[in-house]
Amino acid sequence: MKKVLVVIATMFLLTIILSSENVSAWNGEIREELRYLNTVETDPDPIYSRGYNPAVTVLVNGLVVAIKDYQGKLSYQVGEEKDGVMYWTYPEEYDTGKNASITTWQSYQVMEIHEGESVFDSNVYYNLGRYTDNGSIDWYSVGNVYSTDAYHPTITALYGAQFVVSHQNLFNNLYNGVAFYDSVETRDIKWVQQGNRYDTGRTPSLTAITPEFESPWIVKTHVLEMHQSHANNGLWYRIANIPIKDGIEEWGPSVKFDNGHDPVAVQLNNGHILTMFEGASGNNPTWNRIGKVVDDKIEWTTNTYTEFNGTKNDVVQLGSAYVPNDFILNVRQSPDDNVLLYTLGKWNEGSKRIEWQN
């Protein structure tokens, strides 16, 4: 009975906290009132919000910016890792839409891309924002149209304020775009490549990598793309080199690496590639696989393994060149409802795997 009461009280508290609108912005101090949600003994998976399709990026000061959609509205939260626990601000709405992706560029700048809110809106939009001293995001360029007939957009940033975008269309063709921030003439995003068809498939994801890995903070010169087959549950990846302020001239070979849904990846501090995806069986385990980039392919060093359930995963390596951090952060949607969960983990050199805390 006590466990039942604790669970009810926890969900009641979560509802009150997360349903509050127009709350004050992050003030640079850890919000101790959210610690209770991270340490409830009856739920081993820490809850940080509610919504759908979470995505996350890391700022140069070590803080993270997480975004999500809920009831047609997009919101963000700022998070900080301290002593193996994540502390989060309240959600702050910034636009309408769904299926958003976000990346960091030039230290405190962020670029976000998302689908339109309505089922009749097939546009993909992007927003530009800047992390401010008071801990909030100042969205200074919003509602910009990137493409039409576009779904499930994803974005990553490379050196030189350069961005790579990928999306699928209604017929499961995959397209990429390349842009850079023009700080001289327009002081806005300048697209040098749009609508470049490179494959077929669904739910693409992008992450910036460095194949010739020397340091975790060296500039990222390549992009790793992963997607699900348009015909079945097969998962595929490709790697491309992006010359600065130029489009993608040629993608590497398309290689199948597993079966599942919604693959995402990140390059860790030691150069390894961690990919996470939902299993193909439909019972919602989050699978992990680890490898290293050799030329334009990944040599997998671990077999696929799982330690927790979830859907719509995203993953980042915490820390920066100025704020070192060995933790890896996974955010995901609960397989049973719209609760959003997070898990922290670290690389284990002995097992060559990620040891997740839960």
Defining key terms:
358 residues; mainly beta; Neuraminidase; five-stranded antiparallel sheet; disordered N terminus
Describe the structure.
By secondary structure, the chain is mainly beta. Helix content is 6%, strand content 55%. The chain has one domain (2-356): Neuraminidase (6 Propeller). The strands form six sheets. Strands 1, 24, 25, 26 and 27 form a five-stranded antiparallel beta sheet that branches. Strands 2, 3, 4, 5 and 6 form a five-stranded antiparallel beta sheet that branches. Strands 19, 20, 21, 22 and 23 form a five-stranded antiparallel beta sheet that branches. The longest helix is centred in the first third of the chain and has 18 residues, at 2-19. It is globular, with a radius of gyration of 19 Å. Residues 1-43 have low confidence and may be disordered.
List the helices and strands and how they pair.
Blueprint: H1 2-19, H2 35-38, E1 47-50, E2 52-58, E3 64-70, E4 73-82, E5 85-88, E6 92-96, E7 98-105, E8 109-115, E9 124-131, E10 137-147, E11 151-158, E12 162-168, E13 173-182, E14 188-200, E15 202-209, E16 222-228, E17 234-241, E18 255-259, E19 261-267, E20 273-278, E21 285-294, E22 297-300, E23 305-309, E24 311-317, E25 328-333, E26 339-348, E27 353-356
